[in-house]
Design brief:
The structure is a single chain. By secondary structure, the chain is an alpha+beta fold. The protein has a domain at 230-436. It is built from 13 helices and 16 strands. The protein has helices spanning 32-44, 68-73, 78-81, 86-90, 95-101, 132-141, 215-218, 233-244, 248-259, 307-311, 320-324, 375-386, 445-453, and strands at 21-29, 60-66, 114-115, 121-127, 146-153, 155-157, 175-176, 190-191, 222-231, 329-330, 333-335, 352-355, 364-371, 414-416, 423-425, 432-442. The strands form 5 sheets. Strands 3, 9, 10, 11, 13 and 16 form a 6-stranded mixed β-sheet that branches. Strands 2-4-1-5 form a 4-stranded antiparallel β-sheet. β14 and β15 (423-425) form a beta hairpin. The longest helix is centred in the N-terminal third of the chain and has 13 residues, at 32-44. The structure holds protoporphyrin IX containing FE (HEM). Protoporphyrin IX containing FE is lined by residues 162, 164, 166-171, 229, 231, 259, 261, 291, 307-308, 311-312, 328, 364-365, 367, 378, 381-382, 386, 401-402, 432.
């Protein structure tokens, strides 16, 4: 076990926001010895490791993650592979996993645009806007032994919006990183082991526990979930605007009550329909963007079923300590051109700053998250909090944004508690659809070098 961070891929510490263009390359190994050799060259040049102190000066960055099949193809033996967590080894598409994630109906893998079985690895390519095309080309030319099976282009939207028009990427777990001379970690910071294997976690264990054949391969690595989540923006706003009637302010209020924050990221407060509050002077969110629900058990401000409150209930479920064990580091990017302005109510604007490739009239989120335990962290959030009708005292509704499709849209309800009478929405349409997904592993530097050496 180690406390060092230099051998960890930088995606654990940063979403590379200063590199506003990105493309995710889905790769297959076609010639293992050649693929290992080119991987070795990437480790030496291109892949970023550690918590960069001069990250804003980077012009490009690469990160790489592998499926279990990818590790196998590069020579990782079965006894080592079996020391990885079961969901990773089995992949995202088993019958059990489909039920856990709600990948049923329209979300079922047979309808996906790409599947885990098509790929062995994903190379995340980041650059400053105009440099991305040339950098992708130069990188692809260095990938002897690999075939690029698909490129997922991304887009950066202005003001950190996602396609429905909400400020995304606000709440992230803070990491407690031990440094001798640096500032002390904030009191609510989580130990690195919650996200990176081989480091101490909240249970004070190196995660996972035992020393074994796979320890060196897992050391400094993190599980990475990649899901292409298509957002039907016209359908989302059409439904909300129909419910709200001609009052556009009401439409924005309804959508905010479903998401759990105002489009500009401001927290919700109890009270009747009203306008979106302005950001404080300087544009920073109050309390650093942190939220608390303990004083609002009924959800009169942020409803108990809202996406943000379900995805991280914080102090709402009794034990904050317990909730902390189910955090994820979100590192996704948007894809596709923004929907036309006429789709949005007044006050919600989505425009693109940097985009790549031939973007179709198809948009959404390339959801990516990192964790040390797929079942305890990502799957628990999706299954027990987003998809569960019996969550936090609710009994017949699911996440209105990102639930799975184990129920039909006709059965999808949503409650906005209000005094004296709650507002109840029926037949909330599914406007997020899964279009691809994989469980991957983002190895540390030493493990990558060993992989490259075969
Ligand atoms: C297209 C689908 C999705 C959209 C549009 C979406 C949008 C958002 C937005 C606007 C926020 C608030 C901003 C922030 O705190 O960063 C948020 C927060 C969050 N979302 Fe999602 N999300 C989606 C899917 C998911 C999924 C599938 C998961 C996990 C399984 C997830 C987990 C989270 C978490 C953990 C937070 C932070 C909550 C907090 O700590 O307060 N989201 N999401």
């Amino acid at each position: 076990m180690t406390n060092g961070t230099d051998g960890i891929q930088s995606l654990v510490f940063t979403g590379f926001a200063s590199l506003d263009a990105a493309r995710f390359l889905l790769l297959r190994v076609v010639d293992p010895p050649a693929a290992r050799a080119s991987l070795g060259r990437l480790v030496e040049h291109g892949l970023r490791f550690g918590k960069g102190t001069r990250e804003d000066r980077w012009h490009t960055a690469l990160q790489i993650a592998f499926s279990a099949d990818g590790l196998r193809t590069l020579g990782v033996t079965e006894d080592v592979l079996q020391t990885f967590e079961r969901p990773f080894v089995e992949g995202i598409e088993t019958e059990h996993r489909k039920r856990v994630l709600g990948d049923e109906g329209d979300n079922a893998p047979e309808h996906w645009a790409w599947r885990q079985r098509d790929l062995h690895a994903v190379l995340f390519v980041y650059a400053k806007g105009p440099e991305l095309d040339a950098y992708t080309e130069a990188t692809a030319a260095r990938l002897a032994g690999w075939q690029v099976v698909r490129m997922l282009d991304t887009v950066t939207l202005d003001a950190n919006r996602e396609h429905f028009g909400f400020h995304d990427g606000i709440a992230q777990p803070k990491l407690a990183l031990a440094t001798d001379d640096g500032p002390a970690s904030p009191p609510d910071a989580l130990p690195l082991g919650e996200f990176v294997l081989g480091h101490r976690d909240l249970a004070d264990q190196p995660a996972p526990t035992a020393a074994d054949a796979g320890e060196a391969t897992r050391q400094d690595g993190s599980y990475l979930v990649l899901r292409q989540l298509q957002e039907d923006v016209p359908a989302f706003w059409q439904d909300i605007r129909r419910r709200a009637g001609p009052d556009e302010q009401h439409a924005v209020w309804l959508a905010a009550k479903m998401m759990g924050r105002w489009p500009n990221g401001m927290p919700l407060a109890p009270g009747p329909v009203g306008p979106q509050p302005e950001l404080p002077p300087g544009g920073t969110l109050p309390n650093g963007g942190e939220l608390a629900y303990g004083a609002d058990p009924q959800g009169l401000g942020c409803p108990r079923g809202a996406h943000v409150r379900r995805a991280n209930p914080r102090d709402a479920l009794g034990s904050e300590e317990n909730v902390k064990r189910h955090r994820i580091l979100r590192r996704g990017r948007c894809y596709g051109l923004p929907a036309p302005a006429s789709v949005f109510p007044a006050g919600v604007t989505v425009t693109a700053r940097a985009g790549t490739g031939a973007l179709e009239d198809d948009r959404g989120l390339l959801f990516a998250c990192l964790c040390a335990d797929l079942s305890r962290q990502f799957e628990l959030i999706q299954q027990t909090w987003l998809n569960n009708p019996k969550h936090d005292g609710l009994f017949d509704e699911v996440d209105p944004i990102a639930s799975g499709q184990a129920i039909t849209a006709d059965e999808r309800r949503y409650t906005i508690p209000e005094a004296p009478v709650r507002c109840r929405l029926h037949a909330v349409p599914f406007t997020v659809r899964v279009r691809g997904g994989a469980y991957l592993f983002l190895p540390g530097k030493a493990a990558l070098s060993r992989l490259a050496e075969g």
